[in-house]
Structures are given as structure tokens and as C-alpha cells.
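protien #1 (seq + structre)
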Amino acid sequence: MIQFVKKGIAESKRGKPPGTITKYSDKEQKEVEFELIRYNAGTFEQRRLKGAANLPLPDSSEQVNWICIFGHSDIELLNRLSELYGISHLALEDILNPDHRPKLEFFEDHLLVILKMISYDSKGILISEQISIVLGKNFVLAIQEQPGDLFDPIRERLRSSVGRIRSMSADYLAYSLLDVIVDNYFVILEELAEELEDLEMILIKQPEEFEPIDIHDLKMQLFYLRKISWPLREIAHSLQKTESGLVLPPTRLYFSDMYDHAIRVLETTETLREVSVGISELYTSNISLKMNEIMQTLTIISTIFIPLTFIAGVYGMNFEVMPELKWPNGYFGVLGIMAVIAGVMLIFFRRRRWL
């Protein structure tokens, strides 16, 4: 089962100009929390804030600014963010659309990457949430639908100054965020592979306990994963080959690694889809085999009763001149003949291995 972290119906945009900001959620507008992380090789700052008035001004220093916004309900905050950081209204329109196809789009002084961040909740339901990453000269904006994400390891690396992330520019931070999202696909795929293996073993060893709805849910999850992972190749390839000054040559090498990961995600998804189809076909074959066994049993029973019915029909005719009708032991004789015929036919069927 898949649960999408988006509720409400988009307002009609017919006739409105491009870049019109539409509220896609029916929730009341409220102040949205956001997290600000500023860092360079020697400094680190992390704060949790609320409201458009607390948005930090663009920083012209050598520090990298990472702003993580948790929610879409505060339109005022997003509009203010667009004004401060020069984000195109076309980009903001796509950010607010929770059902957007994953994509990469270049603007004059920033670029936008839209991906799906997936995870399992405590009930084992696959959660899909859209996350939009905006990369500018010295800032990265991560706008998501709900609080909670996969980026705690990156925050810890920044806090502890582990690796090269603190000495790299904003494009490397954007790569790190994208890489975490893509690598998490492998975690989900491994769990799906284990579930498929368990279902296959149940179908083989205990077919009476197999629930076809389970394989249907897994097929739908894999179908959705294929849908959202297919554009990953295009995104990674474009970032790898881009000549935009926002992505520096040292970081392009890392996007080449991300491209390889995207290919592997897509190949693994396709393989698991084939496995799920195979399990569905095996289940259908088992049903057909069971039906054939039932039909075979009914056919044998019908075949045995054909000569018995014939004998009963002959002696059920209303003729007066039938010598056997006057025999004292005629009734038991006919039953004996029927029993012999049935026994011979059962022996014949067993020798032919039809029973």
C-alpha cells in the first residue's frame, strides 16, 4: 500500500498566467517551521525558526546557507523566500505542486531539482513525499511537505566537520542531499525484495495462506518506484554534463556516481517488477492447477457413474416382460454387478495414474 503525503485538491488554474501561485492544500495557513544551517570550513551555525519575518537575508560571505522548510501551508513565507533569493515564480509554482514529476530545471541564477522522498512508516506503509531542492550561488533551499527527512547524517557531518563537506561549496551540499535521497531507494528496494521472497516461499510451501492482495500491493509500490526513478537518470546526467556555473567541475564527478546509482535503482526496480509478475503468474497457475484437479476428480466420478446409471436406467423401464424382475436375488445381483464395474474402473484409473 502506498500513501502519498498530500491531501486536498488543487484549485482550477484554467486561464491563469504561468507562475500563478496556487494553494494545493485545504489546510489552514499557519506559520511553517524552517531550519537554517550556515557553515564554512571554520564555522557552523544551526537554528530552528518560524514565520516569514525570520527568514535570513541572502549572505554574500563565503558561508554556505542551507534552509530547510517543513511544509507548504505558509504561502507568505514561500513568497518572501522567492523575493529574497530570486526564485522564479515558475519554480515556486512547481514546488507547491505536490504531484509533480521529478525533474531538473535551470533558471538564470539558480536551478531546481524536484524528487520524491520515500520511506516506510511504523505500520509498513510506503510514504511518498515531494522534496524540492533549489541551488543558488551560496545557498541551498530544501522545501518539503512534512517535518522529518533523511538528512540527519548530513547535519551530523556538518556539525562534526567529517569529510570534505564543510570545505566544499553549495553545489556539493545539494549533491549530498540528492545522494541521500537516491541511496534511500536502495533501502526500500531491499525491503521490497525481502517481502517478495517471503511471499514466494509462502506460495510454494503454504499456498493456502497466500493472500493475492499482498502481491498486488507490492506490484503497485514497484510500479510507483519505477515511475519516480525513471527521471533520475535524466536529472543526474544533466547535472553531470551541465556547464552552469552553479555546479563546479569537482562536483560534476560526484554527479557521475549519482548517475550510476540512478541506473542501478531503475534496473533493480525492473527486476523486482518481473519477480512480482512471476509470483502473480505462479499464483494463477496454482489456481488453474487446483481447478484442473477438481475437474479431473469430478470427471472420474461422472465416468464411473455412467455405466451404473445405464444399468439403473435399463431396469427402470416399465416393461412387463423382463426376466430379471422375477429373480428373488435380482436386486442384490444388479448391485453386485455395479460394484464390480465401479471397482474395475477405479483400478484402471489408478494404474493409469489418473487418481
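ok now protien #2
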Amino acid sequence: MDKKRDIQKPVWWKRSKVLASVAGLALFFAFYMVSQKFTSADMQVNAEHLMYSTVLQGPLTISVSGNGTLVPENIQWLAARVSGRVEQVVIKAGTQVAKGDVIAVLSNPELEQQAEETRWDYEAFLAQFEALNAELESSLLQQKAQVLHAQFSYESANLQLTAETQLIKNNTGVVSEINFKKTQMNVSQLKQTWQIEQQLSDKFSLTMKAKVKAKNAELNKLSKVLQRAEERVESLNIIAPMNGIVQESDLKPGQRIAIGGLVAKIADPKSLFAELQLSELNIGEVTLGQTAVIDTRNGTVSGEVIRIDPNVNNGNVQVDVRILEALPKNARPDLSITGKINVSELENTLYVQRPAFVRANATSSLYRVDEAGYARKVTVQLGKGSVSQIQILSGLQAGDEIVLSDTTTWQTHNTVLLN
């Protein structure tokens, strides 16, 4: 009688069956978990496209920032002192100059002719003045000679009078009374003549000095006229008044320049300070003397607030910052910079990287990330804000992770799945 034989299945078949069961259970569990997340989250966002930050606790420096430029403290605009035509442009914008360097040369034949004619007039008047001075000195010498002659005549007659007086006293009879009287009259006359000549000499000296002074005044006046004329000619050479860099100069050969026309701008690159434009909303805590950091995009330097503009211009307030360190080599006037001013220090506080579109000292809705991969909306009270950080007063704890990216499109959802 035939018997039915049991066919034995291979071991690998049993194992594959077990593996298939396990895989099915795992797939079912994964599907269940995913479905749970899908059903518990209001929306889904790609986590790789977001930025996050962790709440920290410790000291926090509160600062405000703004854009600006480097401005020279010592700057001079050169204006044409005379009109003329540009003959030569020696130095162009961007060139380093030293005091006394010629920047450009103008020409004006009329000024040169006026200076030459004035020089001729001055030289002619100078010759006349010298001739007059020589003539007056000669006349003065003649007057002094007359004074000396009158003095000699008087003294000689006085000697004769003394001798005759002695003879008269001795009754010698040599000198008659008539001759004695004549001698006395002659002495008196010569004395008066001497005195008059002396007075005339004194008056002549005074007159001579007055004439010389008047002519000398005219000569000085003409000299000043000549000096101004020569200075106008010299002004045809536009000279750098200081060491620095020529920032602006639009001169071109053949160009006509009027008196007072701006020809160049020179700035001292060693005397730069920062002009920052801060939002009027952030200016409240800025005060004189606060420290600042200036970024020239090729290095940073420290600074100090030295002036706050009292006016608001287009929503901004200008703040001047003195540079306290050596600037990088690329620093030059009108260089675009950014500046950060430290307005206060918080010793121990909660803070986080500043999320997008949040304001300091306000209540805001932020999304905190949990361990399950959800971003859940929480209400956070914010305190003082810095350039890149902001104080947390309530709503978050140290170690919490939040979403930094813009979440304005999420605000209608309390829970967001980050996949």
C-alpha cells in the first residue's frame, strides 16, 4: 500500500517568511508614525531650508548699527582766484599731492599785461621818488650850510664886540663910540640871522620829512597794487595748499574758469572719521562717548561717538564717530563702511540670535523646535535688541531651539512639521 510522503521545505524558505513578516510590521509602524505626524501637524516645511538658533544665557552687549562713509576732518575746496583758460592739468583726481604742488595751470594774457604795466608805473614812480629824495637832501644840506655860515658870522662879530668892549673900558681911544655902537648892532643882527636860519633849517627838515612820507605812502600804495597784480598772475598756477589726496577735479585743457569756480577738492587721508546713518528708531540710547566698531570690509577698528545730529533726515540720524585705531590700508575718503555702536551691557540674561522681522521691547510669536521635529508657536516677550541678538524676557528657556527664518507665512498655524 502506498503512503503519502511529507515534503520538507528548505530552511531558507522559513527564514524569508519570517523576514517578510518583520518587514511588513516595520513598514506598517513607519506608515503609522508618518500618518500620525501628518495628522497632528497643521503644515509641513522643508527643514533644510530653515535657519535655527539656540537660546543662551550670559552677558549680552546691546548695539545698534548703520551704514555710512569715511569723511576727512581736514578738507579744502580750491576755487579759482582769477578767471582764465586751462592750459595744463598737471594732477588729476586720486593723486597724492604735497603742499605747494601745481595742480593745474591757467592762462590770462590780460592779467599778465596789467601786471607788466603796473610794474612799469611802479618803477617810474620809484625813480621819481629817489630823485625827489636826493633833491630834498641836497636842499637840506644847503640850509644847514647857511645856518653854519650865519653862526660863524655871529660868533666872529661877537669876538670883535668883546675886544672893542675891552678897549672902550680902558679908554685907549682906538675904537670910537660910533664904531662900537655899529659893532653892537651888527652882532645883534647876525644873532637874529643865525636864529632865523636855524628855524628855517628846522622847518625845512619837517617839510622834507612830510614830503618824503607822502611820496613814500604813494610808493607803498603802488607797490601793493603791483603785488596784487603779480599775485593774480601767480594765481594762474593752482597750488595745493596742503598734503593730501585730490578727490575731485574735473578740469580739462581749454576749459574756461570763472573767478570763484571750484577746481579741486583735497582731503587729508590721515584725518578720517566715520559718518553713520542710524534709524531714528534706534537713536534713543545712543549717547556721546559710547564705543563703536567700524567695519571697512577690509578690517575693523574701534571708535568713539563724538557727535549726534539733532535733526532727522529721511528717517535717519547722522552720528559721527572718531577713529581710535590705525585704519586699514584701503581706507580712504568716501569709503562705504558699516558701524556698530555699543549702547549698553546686560550682565546675565537670556538671549538668542535675532529672528527675522521682530522688534525689541515687544511681544512676538516664535516657533520653538521640539525633539519630535515639530515647530510649535510660542508667545515670547522680547527685551532689548542688538544688531544680531535680542534679549528674551519670557516664553523661552536656555537651551530651547527656535526658527530664525521668516515665518510670517506660518502665523495661522500653531504647529509645523519639519521634514
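Residues 109-170 form the longest helix (62 residues).
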